[in-house]
Structures
1.
Amino acid sequence: MIVGAVNGHDAIEVLDTEVLVVTLAASLVVPFTIGVIYKTNNTTSANRRAVAGDGAAGGNWLLGPYTGAYKTYSGAFTTNSATFDTNYHLQLVTQASGDLKNYVDNNTPATTATTSEAPQTKLHIGNDSGGAGEPVTGRIAEVFVYTGVISANDRLALQNYADARYAL
């Protein structure tokens, strides 16, 4: 990983075989909110992950530019209809019991009924949990993790912060 800049602020550039693993102090459980400000350099239909995690019972959890769209997975895929491109975006996922919402730039979310799966104690930033299979191939500016589903006002405040800091 190398450090670049986004609007004068540091960002991590993720290349094809890199992953940053963040270990949380405790297991992340439903309900939760995870957000990431990132851009991908690749708009093909390849599988790419901005954030991934090992779900409960060895399951799978992800958010990012997956198969050419802004997706999240937690027992089922949820695809946001925002135009997929190589610009910076804030992708925010909220999950309550059986209800996952996938926001991109605070637009109307895509919602899917899912299993109540969370990414547990490790978040893999920029790639899958193995570190070599599904890299975001782009830059990650910030990652946000909240225990609980944040309110509409908090989502708007987070979007306003991202817009001001990174000129989204």
2.
Amino acid sequence: MSDPNPSPSPKRGGLFLDCQIRKALVLQLKLYRRTWECKIVAMMTKEISGGVVHEMPTDLQKALSASEAAMKKWESLTPLARNEWICWNITVKQQKTRDEHVKSTVKELQEGKRRPCCWIGCIHRTDKKISPSVQGILDKKKAKKS
């Protein structure tokens, strides 16, 4: 008859120990996975600062959330600088152009740029008068449309 409680042999002790190590590793992996899932959810749901006049559009928010470097740079910008980027992204007419602007925004922030290049500035601000040079550009655009 076999003994119901056999004495631990090196083989059985080894198997038992391996099983405990395996369980501990599985538990650690589950905890590690949960930690990263929480970090990803926090990153995706983190409120991203907007501008002075404009709210953060969802397409730009998603793009910034996907890049930690761009996100850090974004949060280091002044509200006026963020407003310039947002305005630059939302004032285009075609979706294709907007998609390109969103990609460019992330890329240029990763490169360290603080403002969009060659941008006349946000014309939606009401806290200050539009500069004469910007007004001249707007007048020329208006004249072309007429």
3.
Amino acid sequence: MKKTFCLLMLLCLTVAATSAHAQSLSLDPSAQDIGTGDTASVDLNISGFSAGGPISLGAFGVHVSYDPNLLAFDSLEYGASLGDPGADEADTWVDSATPGIVKMDNISWLSTAELDSAQPGSFTLATLIFVGIGAGSGVVELSNVDLSTAPGETVAGTVPEAIQINVALTVAIDIKPDDSNNTINNNGKGVIPVAILSNPNTSFDATQVDPATVELEGMRIKTVGKAGKFLSHVEDVNGDSVDDLLVQIQDQDGTFEAGDTTATLTGQTFDGTPIRGSDKIRIVPQ
């Protein structure tokens, strides 16, 4: 009798310890830079399981919050580790009716043995896609986390820190306006002219871009003189009767590699609005 009691106590302690084992949630990547109209992909991951069991995730629910002034929720794709809803192995729900929050739930109908076999130690629960709609910096974070094992026991989950998504105003740029191929030698000699184009339709005034903040793939505007004057000036580059900003980027050897086809310019306006624009390039051998 005493031996049986001890075995039961050991079993209870083992179950309790297993149920209390905390799994860790994460949002990846930890930071992203996008432009308005661009998409940001965020993976919701979980770790802390033992591959092949004995604990496997049977269901989860979570709320994902974001700034609706900067981002719009686009879509969600659940991972495969809880089963295929199309094969009646799982059920999934998503509620994105309220701007700024995505409520998601996923429950598996697979057996404990099937889940033990299917789940590795860490895996992706879902991937969320957002679209940048406003300029600024915002966070994506989790709340209302509910995790349970295949038998329905509650699992403690460590909630991750919020991740940051920086959204810049997407603007049009023209690298080397006088060269339709945008050919760059990338030999560290000379300058690369880049036009930042105004857009009357969006009220974007390129002349309000602060030259001190402008970078083309990390290369900055060339400065001259003791005062460090930036080589930039206002002119109507594209002939639409609206002033643009033409800047001269100091070339730096090794910034580009053979085969690179796009270059991105970043910066800020004088009032702090971040901007981002890309154009095609063609790298020629040195």
4.
Amino acid sequence: MRVALLTREYPPEVYGGAGVHVEYLARALAGLADVTVHCQGAPRDTAVAHQPWQELRDQVLRVFSADLSMADAVGDADIVHSHTWYAGLAGHLASLRYGIAHVVARIYDPRRAEIYQRLGIPTVATVAWTIEQVTRKLFPGRSVSEWTDPTGQVSLVERALPDSWCGRKLSAIEQQTGARIVAVVRGNQSVLPPAELLGQEGDVLYLAVDRSSGESLNECLGTAQLQAAER
């Protein structure tokens, strides 16, 4: 998977938290994907630098001109991440022009970011919180632990529903794995699943698992993902 991180600042040109934020995000994702950082400003060895059009006098338009250069450079990416509004236009244009998935960092306060998420806006915030949230979006098949009981025996995990489970009863996952589906997030709604609920594309499951059911869950949904990829 090719990931393009779009930002205005990046080391050694750092004048705020955004540059440090992207630096740590790039490090965290490097072991999971082919990551390229696109920044604005002077050329550097650690990123692809884009310069604004010198003919423009307006500072906002100069930023937008660098965004156009960024958008032009990321056509082969599988996903783009725009960091703050400075790179927002670049990611948005790349998403429209090339059909690339787009993750947007809007704010740094995680409490406010959660409100944006409930409104259906793809939002990430703060260094540690962002790394986890963006990783979830890039690799939805991974089990992400939301909570573990004090004994360490039972956890609440998040899993994206594989396409091959669409149209099938979600209760079958419980029967096959021993896990318990606590909630299903569908669009902007979260529901307590009735026994007859059928899976839909884009569903996100929250499941209570112990150690044995966790392994069964990986086998169940992992096999389903593989079968879906092969069709």
